[in-house]
Amino acid sequence: MKTLRQPSREPLWREEFSVNAEDERYVTRRQFAKFLTLTSLAMFAGNAWIVAKSLLRKAPLYPATPIVRVGDVPVGGVKLFNYPTAQDPCILVRTAEDTHVAYSQVCTHLSCAVYFSDKAGHLICPCHEGSFSVKDGSVIAGPPPRPLPRVVLEHRGPDLVAVRMEQT
Amino acid sequence: MAAPSPHRQSALVALDGVLALIAVILIVQMWLLSATLESYLRGRDGVVLPAAIVSGVLFLACLGLGFLAARVDRRARD
Q1: Do A69 and A29 reside in the same domain of the chain?
Q2: pTM to 2 decimal places
Q3: What ipTM was assigned to the predicted interfaces of this complex?
Q4: Residue-range definition of the domain harbouring residue A72
């Protein structure tokens, strides 16, 4: 069958799509540079947002709250409570006859609730096997990036009283 | 397809260089943002403001490189 197309060195698709490939690439690079610059602006905005949050962050109020009477929790036992607000779960562990420690129960990885494993002697996050030292709340193993915040306890008469929280 | 002119070819190389520099700056900014967020969540607010200032300077550098890319582009087209 005879065709109307004249013989040519260029393939048919290149004749029909007559966009200069070099120009096309050129424009794409300029647009990519603009896109990267806007992404850089977004990174700066993120940092500025953290500064704003930091300036607006109020110092938390830590009321002195009785948690438990000394002796009510057996050695190796735990008591769950909320501190400093009802939305902040914490865990108290009696590690020895005269030693009580308390930490935020919220894992610093993805906010699962940690529990005390008497067998392991650690605070364990069941979600991703994160493990915290019961002595100081530091990370022993797993993905948590930060130690557990510690609840500072004081003996006041027969009670153990939570007085503030500390980042260790 | 016609080969690009030597002038345009050098402009393309310059644009590639600008893009590479912007990409490096962006990676530093990403690291800075994640490290700052980590410090903020730890309750260490001392690094937040210096990190924001550095991030702003890096953004201005990106912006400058972006304008440089536009100028190279304009010259190549003239």
Answers
A1: no
A2: 0.62
A3: 0.88
A4: 65-166
